[in-house]
Automatic annotation (TrEMBL):
Species assigned in the record: Pontibacillus yanchengensis Y32
All copies of domain AB hydrolase-1, residue ranges: 17-179
Keywords for this protein: Hydrolase
GO molecular function: hydrolase activity
The protein's name in its UniProt record: AB hydrolase-1 domain-containing protein
Length: 257
């Protein structure tokens, strides 16, 4: 625990890798990324108001979630980490990297975007916000079923999402819907890995923004949609491992010269 507020799992040893979840989900969505702890130190936080983390009194904000991550790293005694954001969790990852570059080793975005800039994505946000207020159990069920076919994992995801504070869940949606770091991406000077499923065609509008990042790699997984950490976990983990062992060190050498 961090000041009895932020819960996180801390697994393995080696280069620290932090996985940041989307609204409502908590760290459970990264069940299969725990396997990476065989080679890395894997940190899986529940952001403020999610899972086993308590709700803070301050207003919900992307910057506030970034502070959660910084406080977790301080508590764990970690100077620098790889920051991985999934879906809307990518907003928190990008905000952290922009705000705390000295604490960042590299950035990984799975289905990431610097701002909401497509009709499909905007529609998904609006549906999510409406369901959080009207029927969050139904929303949790839809999200859980979209992430796995396995009933046991579906139940675990749904149950964990129901632990999220509904106000924080809604505000996370709202804050990330309005967030925009597209003009600040050029300030990111660490290695960046972009991961997408080839079938999530609505993300194509967002990928060109990352041309501003000087040290960026794009990987698209064939026949895959958005839910890569759970639906394509073997490929997802393998790509991350290759990036961290092969590509990121090359970028780091270029950056240091």
């Amino acid at each position: 625990m961090v000041e009895q507020t932020i819960f996180y799992k801390d697994l393995g040893n080696g280069l620290p890798v932090v996985f940041i979840h989307p609204p409502g989900m908590g760290h459970k969505v990264f069940l299969y990324q725990e396997n990476l702890s065989q080679s890395y130190r894997v940190l899986l936080p529940d952001l403020n108001g999610h899972g086993m983390s308590s709700k803070r009194d301050n207003p919900v904000s992307i910057a506030g979630f970034s502070l959660d991550i910084k406080e977790m790293l301080d508590h764990a005694g970690i100077e620098k980490a790889v920051i991985c954001g999934y879906s809307a969790g990518s907003m928190v990852a990008q905000d952290f990297v922009i705000s705390y570059p000295e604490r960042t080793h590299a950035m990984i975005l799975s289905g990431g975007f610097p701002k909401v800039n497509s009709f499909v994505l905007a529609t998904e946000y609006k549906i999510g916000m409406r369901l959080v207020k009207k029927n969050r159990e139904r929303l949790a069920n839809i999200i859980a079923r979209s992430h796995t076919k396995h009933p046991t994992f579906q139940h675990a995801l749904k149950s964990y999402m129901m632990k999220a504070d509904p106000t924080v869940w809604y505000e996370f949606y709202k804050e990330s819907y309005h967030y925009d770091c597209s003009q600040q991406l050029s300030t990111i000077k660490v290695p960046v890995l972009l991961l997408y499923g080839k079938r999530e065609t609505w993300m194509k509008k967002h990928i060109p923004y990352y041309n501003q990042c000087a040290f960026c790699t794009l990987q698209q997984i064939p026949k895959a949609f958005h839910q890569l950490p759970s639906r394509q976990s073997v490929y997802f983990n393998r790509i991350i491992d290759h990036f961290l062992t092969e590509q990121a060190p090359l970028f780091q050498n270029m950056i240091s010269k």
